[in-house]
Amino acid sequence: MTPILELKGIRGGYGTIDVLHGVSLTVEPGQVHALLGPNGAGKTTTLSVCSGQIVPSAGQLIISGREVNGVSSDALARAGVCLIPEGRGIFPNLTVTENLRMFTHSGVSMNEMQETAFAQFPRLKERRKQIAGTMSGGEQQMLAMARSLAANPALLLLDELSMGLAPLIVEELYERVAALASQGVSILVVEQFAQAVLGIADVASIMLHGRITRTGPPQEIAEELTEAYLGGSTGSHA
Amino acid sequence: MSDTSNPSSRLQEFQTEVDSLKVTGGKANPERTWVIIGALLMIAGIVLSIVSYASISSSAPLKGQVVFTDDYAALGTLGLVLAVVGAALFIVMSLRRYFRFWLIRLIFEQREQADRIAGR
Q1: In sequence order, which residues have a C-beta less than 8 Å from that of residue B18 and are 6 or more positions away?
Q2: What pLDDT sits at residue A3?
Q3: Could you tell me the residue range of the domain that residue A92 belongs to?
């Protein structure tokens, strides 16, 4: 089966500074692929390339078998590539209802949007008139996820879902992610905190200094993580 | 809205939408080419102007010799125009690249500031 997302030798970054130095990864349809790495590894930049926000300076971005380097990010979003960015990407000065209205650009009606969002996250219905910026981090993340559910993505890109959230909330959110995956949505999730995501991932990759150093089953990756982050063996010091 | 209970139909729909995407093959650094063209035009224009106006001033005609003063003047003017256009292109594209990343940095800094104020 054709992978839903393929990066081949991607180089790119910001201006003349390349952050990614030949990144290659594959996401199969219906798969949850976890991309792990410390701060500054290039994970968010990788997602920016996948969502069309950054044009790679070299390499290929292939979606469903078609090379789409240079495609506009809004066209990709309309096609079904949904990015939930680091920091949630909601409008903090708008209410929950207004935020949901802002997300109807993908063609989903407001009624459908509210129906899906409130069914999945009843807490959002209780807070529908509340300013989004005054909600807790977990509730904001629910709002961000609600729009992805309503937009019916084929490929979901998640950036640091667990950032700033309590472990219980993270667990609840990743259960939702697992439910989405069971419905056939392909998911590329970026995380610093591996334990949160390795339980639901089918494949995991480690990213360091703009390169993917290892890809494999989550259990194997979990064993190698500490060494990968800290670099080399931690021998005794005299 | 498509049927979420049928993953393969959603995939097929996605495939169709991806196949119909307009892909322009954009460049990572689109201003770079124009900056180089602007610089080359600027240099070429300056050189052309200098050579043309120097040819006018140095042309002390001998008896019977035809001097193309007007042609040199026209070339010199063309050189000036090319130099001005090249300089404008160079400056505009350089500033565009600079401001693009200045704006991104501004957004990130404001976001960090908002997070600090909110106590996150």
Answers
A1: A63, A64, A66, A68, A79
A2: 93
A3: 5-229
